[in-house]
Amino acid sequence: MSISPGSLMRTVPGDSLLHRTPLWLKYVALVGLGVVGTVWRTWPVGLGLLALSVLLYAFAGKDILRGWATPLRYWWWILLILGGYQWWSAGPGAAVGLLGCMFALVQLARLLLLTTPTADLMDGLGRAAKTVGVPERRAQLVLALILRTIPDLSAAWQRSREAAASRGLKRAPLRTATHLGITAVARARDAGDAIAARGLLDDPRDT
Q: Is the pLDDT confidence value at 58 over 70?
C-alpha cells in the first residue's frame, strides 16, 4: 500500500512496536527530538535525525517506510529555497543542518500521525490541553482542522501541477504556488465561516 498525496497524514494500520507505544511516550519523544533539532541545527545532528527517522519508519512497517520520501514530491521547492539561502548566507554545513533537522522533524511528526489512530490523538490532545487550561473542545477542533487541511492542500498542489503539465507547463512552480496560496486562503475562510455559523467556539463550556 502506498501513501497518496491526500493521505500524507492518514493512519496506516499495523502491529509494530511504534503502533503499540503509548501516546504520551510518543509526545515526549517528539518534543525531546524537536528541542534537539531546533537548538542544535548542525549538519551532524541533521543527518543523525534523518537517519533516525528512516530507521523508525522501517520499524513501523514496509507500508509506512515506502511513504518516507513522499513529502519531497510536494515540498521540494520550499526546501530548495531555504537551503539555497542558508548555503549562501551561512555555508553548506548550516544548510545541511537546517534542512536535515527541519525535514527530519516533519517526518517524525508524520510518523506520530501515521502510527496513531485519529481518535486517540484527539483524546490525548484534549486531555493535555485541559491540564494546561486550554478548552478541550477547542484543542480538538484545531487538530481536526489540521489533519483535514494538510492532506487537502497536498492534493490541491498535485492537481495544480497536473493541470499545468496538461497545458505544456511542466515546470511552473510560481503558478502552482500561487494557486495553492489562493486555495489555502479560500479553505481557511470557508472553515472560519462554517465554525462561526455553527457557533462551535461560542460554547459557554469553553469559557
A: yes
- What nine digits make up the cell of 134? 486550554
Categorise residue 12: left if φ over 0, alpha if ψ from -120 to 50, beta otherwise: beta
pLDDT at 105: 92
> What digits encode the pLDDT tens for the residues 87-118?
998 888 889 999 999 999 999 988 998 898 87
Grid cell, residue 57, equals 519508519
Which residue matches cell numbers 537546517?
A: 98
39: Cβ contacts below 8 Å, ≥ 6 apart:
none
Report the sign of the C-alpha dihedral through residues 154, 14, 30, 44, in that order: negative
The length of the chain is 207
pTM: 0.68
Q: How far is CA 153 from CA 29, 92, 191, in A?
A: 28, 31, 14
Three-state DSSP string of the chain? CCCCHHHCCCCCCCCCHHHHCCHHHHHHHHHHHHHHHHHCCCHHHHHHHHHHHHHHHHHHCHHHHHCCCCCHHHHHHHHHHHHHHHHHHHCHHHHHHHHHHHHHHHHHHHHHHHCCCHHHHHHHHHHHHHHCCCCHHHHHHHHHHHHHHHHHHHHHHHHHHHHHHHCCCCCCHHHHHHHHHHHHHHHHHHHHHHHHHHCCCCCHHHC
